[in-house]
Every structure is written in structure tokens, then in C-alpha cells.
């Protein structure tokens, strides 16, 4: 009889050039998996993405057992009868949640949650410090070849560092944990918020993929934990004297417009202690018009937004020019190590799969992430 | 006979507004110390007799015109980390008066400046800021231009001068997932020597010296270059300026650091301008020996308007602000309080300047 497991077929449909070294590494490690890679054109539009997918050769899906993609799924689940694992190159799974593979099948979907912590945390820290240290002013001075004023009356001499200040992490997942880790090193007090209570040491642990040397695997960083998807619990958390709030929850039905006027007021003790807010998750988590109001009336001290509602942010949005607001075009999660780490998760999951063990980062359709 | 410590006369000479709250707290805590505050700016005119009884001086850059005016002066506490500004004064050159510095308070805000400028470079923040000013959502599709951004995980931070500032940069560097290696003047070859015995802002620093994965030392060129050759991605210069460290880093050192320009390396200076041979740095930046730099200190200061450093795309220049902050004054006084306490008890003080080594 023949020996060895049946051949698996991994199809990679990703919007970047084939990472040959990584693929060869995988081929070496998993002799029973055939690996095909096709680069697809990136598009932000759902329609264009479907169009791009339709261009793929007929029958490409026939033997596929594992799919590694960002947004390219077989139009009809029946086209891919052997598909049993979809690994997404993103942390979120919103882009596939309306697709029949999500809504009508049980195909396991995993995400690349866990790869983003380091670079996104860096973006968070950078944009917070750029504001608190008045970097934009310093940059302008440099362009003018001006050695600043002396004597200390100007803005950038009144810098307040982070020691003793409080970081609130709304969504203590892998990204939140890395921001927490760095904030703690800077001397901050960190408080965490999660959907469900983490009231045992076990629950505080991060069971997902962690980039070595980063994160908070034991959940030791926060001095206090809060939880609850209802408004009361949320507002209770926001009232904890937070100086800097990171928004790092997934976008789900429950978290849409999670933060609006009432929440901004709670966060800044009714405007008495304006807080700084950072969003690296999804634009619609924040009620954007209300955010703009809160920034203009100084309920909030400032904001750093890598995600907006919608994206691209329209040219005439007031957010572009508000003082103390930094807007970047959804780049915080992008980095040269991304691909390598995302493949690493897939690799680890393939090993676990072979051993019949639980996979990392399985999307739980019931909760939406 | 009368109880309690001998009366001390403390003269505080600082620029800026009188720190009334801090002073009244000090007076409460040390009732045996008579405290006089005088403003040091713009041009202080301090009557000679104000100096006569002074036993302790707390100052930044204002000193008595002559030693003979202050025969009872026994301690000078500087509000700065460095002591260069006093080193040509008779207090330094011709007396044994104890001089102490405020080393230990600068770590947090300077480390933040270091992290900020390093990330501004690696994440190409200037480009992002330009996009924002133009209301532009990136060049092409989101993210496509920034795929080459490399985060700090697994990269090596070299701290040239593992003092209180260096330790805080190291602490944050480690949290970012970096490997940190330390350099000191003299070998720290025991657990005890690796400790930071000075003032540490709570929640920061590296009291035990556990952050670095390796330690290097030595003021001679060979030792320095040996350290620089350790595949460093990001070098922070945080040594004091002394005759040994003047022009510590010149072309040969930049070449060692970057393996002749084959390794992109980012150099930061938050110590003193003359530690870097500035013309050599400029040449190294232009010919690619050094990939980028962030300088909060230059040689001289102010940096002349026509210096090439201003316009180099991969260079950040800021006007010696990295230590400035609202917490500065409070922390400096907190440290000073520790010293007043110790003085009263006859204990050794924090941050005593050792004249023979220059810091």
C-alpha cells in the first residue's frame, strides 16, 4: 500500500511577490504538502477583488485543501470541495465575513493576529511621542535651520514624559499587549480592557502567536483589568483616569461606534483631563463625527489615527488639519517582517494540524473574530 | 548642649520662575537649613554678602565670582547631569568642595526622545506627515509604500555609556524586542558593578543591570572599536564629555560601526556635540558609512545656519531639548532632597563628581 499521509495542497493567493525562500523552507519541512503561489493585484475595493479572483484559471480550486490569502476566496464554496483551512494574512477577518465560506461552511479560518504587535506598537509609541515632544514643531525648525528659542517658554520645552501616567488598552489582545509592554518600560501604569472577564491567571495569558521578545504572555503588565461589551462596563473602564487610550479591539457588531460622545466625556473626566486617543484597529469603532467634535471642543487632547471611517479618508475631512491629530493611511501594520511572521503562524498551525492539536488564531464565527 | 544638626545655609540660584511649592516643602522638611532663593536670569546681580554664609549651593550655571567670597561653601549641587559648565571655575580647579550632579533624572524624557527619533526614521514619519499636510491618503493603495518598514524586533541597540540615560533607553529597547549591549568606561565584571547605585526615577531604568546581553568597556580606541563592531543597528551616544571622550567617534569608528558602510546604522547623540567628530560624521552620512543620525546636541551650539546637517534627509537635528520637561525641576529637587538628607546624616552623596575622571 502506499505509505505517508495523503497529499495536501496549499494555495497562496497574496498581493505581494512570491517569497521563495520562505516557501522553499515550507516545502522542505512539509513533504506531503504541494505549494502553489500566485501573486494577486491588491485592491481596496470588494468588487475589484472579486473580479481579480474570477480571473484565476478554472479548476484552480479543485485540489486545494489549504488556502493562504488576504481577500481571494472561491466565489462558490462548491468550487473548492477539499478546502478545510483558510489562513488569512490579516489580523482581522472582516473582509471575508460576508463570503459564503464564512457564512455557509465550517471551514476553519485562522488569522495572522499576533504578527502585528511589534510594528503597530512602534507606530503607537512614535505618534504619541511625536505629539508629546512636539516633534512637528522641531521638524519645522530644522527645515528653517533654526536652533529654536532658548529659555524654556516654547511648547517643546514643556514636554511631559510618560512616567507615572496611565495607559488604557481597550482590547488587550496581541497588539494591545505589546503597547502595554513598551509603555510599562517607559514608566507608565497600564490598565487593560477585554470583552470577557480575565479573572484567573490562566485567562490572563496570551495563548496566541507571540513574536519572540515581545508581548505580555502572562498578562503581568496591567495593574488592573476591566471587561464587558455593554456601555456601562465600557464607561466604567474609561473613567479610570486614563491619560492615553489605545483602541485595539476587533470591529464587530458590538464594537461599532464603541466610542462616541459619552465615552469621550467619561475618558476625559468631563473635559477636565483631556486624554489622547490612538486608533489602530478599525475606523468605525469610533463615531468619527463625534470624535471631531470632541477634538475641537478640547474634550480630547489629541488623536493618532491609522484607520478612519471611511478609508481613504476623504480629502475634505476636518481630521487632516486639526492640531494635535496625526493621520496615517493604514500603514501601521505593514512591515518587512510581516510576511515572514504570517507564514510562521501558518507553519506552526500546519504542525499542530498534523498532530491533531488546537490551531492558533481560529476565528470564532459566533463572536465575529 | 543644643541638639540637632548645625545650621546650614542653602542658596538656590536657578533660571525660571521661583518654585514656591517645592521650596516650602523643603523648608518644612529641613528646618535647620536656611533657604534663600534668587533668580539666576537674565543676568543675576547677586550681592557679595549673599555668598558669605552659604554652605550649600544649588545651581545650574551661576557660581560665586571668587572662592574667597564663600569660605563656608562645602557642597555644590548642579541641576544638570553634566558638570562641564563648572570645570573651569576655581570651585572645580582649586578647591575640594563637593560637587554633585543631577544625573539620574534625565533618563525618561531623553529616552523618549531617542525612541521617538529612531521610530520617526524607521517608520518614515516625515513622509507620512507630508501626506497628512496634503490631505493625501498615501501614494498608491494603503500600505504599499511602507512595506519595507522594519521594526526593532531582533535588532541590536548599542548603548555607548550605560549610565542612567543609557539604561532607560536600554529598558525601552528591550521592551521593543531588541538585543541590548552596553559599553562603560571601566569593566562591570561583577553583579555588584552592574548595578545602578544612583538616583532612579521610579518605574524606569535598569537598577540591576539585567537588560544588556553583553557588556564592553575601555577608553582606548581598540576597546571602543571592538564594541562598535558588534553588529549594532542603533547606537546611542550617552557618555559624558571628558578629555578621553572628545572626538570619541570619528571616521574610523563610523567605519567599524557599519562595517565600512555595508550595515545601515543609525547614530543618536544626546550627550555632548564634541563627542562626535562632526565633520567626519557629515562625511560618513554623505558617503553612506552611516545610514542616519538624530542629534540633540551639536558642535557648536547653536548649530550654525549653514551646517550641512540641517538639510540631510536622514538626519534629525533638535536644539538640545531632549532633557527639557515639566518633570525636570521636580525630579532634580527630589534628587537634591536625597542629598540633603544624606548630608545631614553624614552619608555619602549621590552623583559626586570625581575630578580625576572628569565626571
TrEMBL record, chain B:
Domain of life (superkingdom): Eukaryota
InterPro entries in UniProt: D-isomer_DH_CS1, D-isomer_DH_NAD-bd, NAD(P)-bd_dom_sf
Pfam families assigned to the protein according to its UniProt record, in alphabetical order: 2-Hacid_dh_C
Residue ranges of domain D-isomer specific 2-hydroxyacid dehydrogenase NAD-binding in the record: 117-194, 219-322
Keywords on record: NAD, Oxidoreductase
Tagged with keyword Transit peptide: no
PROSITE patterns registered for this protein in UniProt: D_2_HYDROXYACID_DH_1
KW Cell cycle (keyword) present: no
Alphabetized GO MF terms: NAD binding; oxidoreductase activity
Protein name stated in the entry: D-isomer specific 2-hydroxyacid dehydrogenase NAD-binding domain-containing protein
Native organism: Meristemomyces frigidus
